[in-house]
Sequence to fold (182 residues):
Amino acid sequence: MTTMYAALLRGINVGGAKKVPMAELRALLGELGHGAVRTYLNSGNAVFSSASDDTDALAADLERAIAKHFGFDVACIVRTGSYLKAVLDACPFPAEELEGKQLHATFFSGPAEPERFAAIDPKAFAPEEFRLGDQVLYLYAPDGLGKSKLAEALSKPSLLKGIDATSRNWNTVKALVEMTRD
Fold:
C-alpha cells in the first residue's frame, strides 16, 4: 500500500539562490522510486506516493539526492496527506474568514515545545498571533508575512536551534491537502 506525501523544501528559488527547477525535482523524486509525483508552484512543494512509512527517511533521502544533483544542501520536511489534513482541521484561527496571505503554517522537522517560544510576549505583536500545534506553528499576520514583526521574531535561529522549519501560506496548505488526498 502506498501513502501520499508532501515534501516541503526550505529556502529554494528565493532571490536567485538555490535554484531547483520543479521538473528536475519531479525527476529526482521519480528516481528515488516514488510515484504520482507532482509539484505545486515554484517554491519547493512536491507531492508523491511511497510505500515507505518513515517520513524522516524519506526527507533524508530527498535531501541527499538534492545535494548530489544540485550541489547544495536543502532542508526537506516530509509529511503525510493525512497529517496535512489534520493541520488544516486543527487551525485555531477562523481560516474560512481570512485571506490566504493572512494565515501561515510553519512546519517543523520535530517537536517544538512551547518553552522555545516562552520569551515572546504576544501582546507586543498584537493583532498578530501565533499558536502551536503538532509540529506546526499557526501564524495570523493580518498585513501578510512580509510585514510581520511576529514572523521575524519567531524565525530567530536561537528559537529554532536543532529543528528545521519552513512556512507556507494557507492557500498553499489547502492546495497540498487536496493534492495529497489518498
Summary: The two ends are 11 Å apart (CA to CA). The helical segments are 22-31, 55-70, 81-89, 149-154, 157-160, 170-179. Residues 55-70 form the longest helix (16 residues). Strands lie at 3-9, 35-40, 45-50, 76-80, 103-108, 129-133, 136-140, 165-169.
